[in-house]
User: What shape does this take?
Amino acid sequence: MKTLSPFKSQTLPQREPAVIQEDDTAKTFSCQEPLIKQPKILIIIPAYNEGKNIGAVLNGIQKQSPGIPILVINDGSSDNTEKVALEHNAEVISLPYNSGYGVALQTGFLYAVKNNFSIVVQMDSDGQHDPANIKDLLEEVQKENRDVVIGSRFLNRASYKTSLARHAGMLLFGNIASLFCGQKVTDPTSGFQALKRRAIEFIASDNYPPDYPDADFIILMNRCGFKIKEVPVTMHASPNKESMHHGHKTIYYVFKMFLSIFVTLLRKSPKR
Assistant: This one.
């Protein structure tokens, strides 16, 4: 198993080469094939310095969803994230430096579009998302009136423990997203999602935010006509890791999210 370069094509077994733009500019690829009964599925995992956790995450996925290919986006890690992912038979694209969650995630979607995947499941690399719920996301997203299925930790009977400030932020932006989407959004920061081809192409375009694709992007997708559904999932506390919304980042996140939502509401909905 070889590491894929983010800046040149590599030949993979039974796949077209992954192409990542040299100037880091997202490019939209058009795939017109209809979703078939046995869709081509890819699991995408952005990872930054997750060498201690990524092995267990990959083991869990391979146990719960055997046979589904996994792509790890190694986001400029300084530890052994890439090595561990390769040892667990995942494909790996390694970015030359830490580019952020949004860029790493979109890199995976560019790969998915170029290689004609029909459905993508995105997950975190720290063990927060329970692989047992992958089948629930896949079952729901393959229904006729679904484009994006979001795993919500707050629809489950089990209580998810987080800080009061972060829970308040989730509630605030969940209510804002609910207002503008015309449907209940309980978990706007969930990175545990399944997406169909139309949504995959949309994320691979210039419309995708480069840092925190949360409530703002849910609102944008709703305005563009994508059908979004939440399903209950189990989430665990991130082991030995601060949230990207932790500490001083919380202030930036709140400001950025309000600004991004405001801009989203002002601009015309991009064409799909």
Remarks:
- Confidence is low (pLDDT under 50) at residues 7-36.
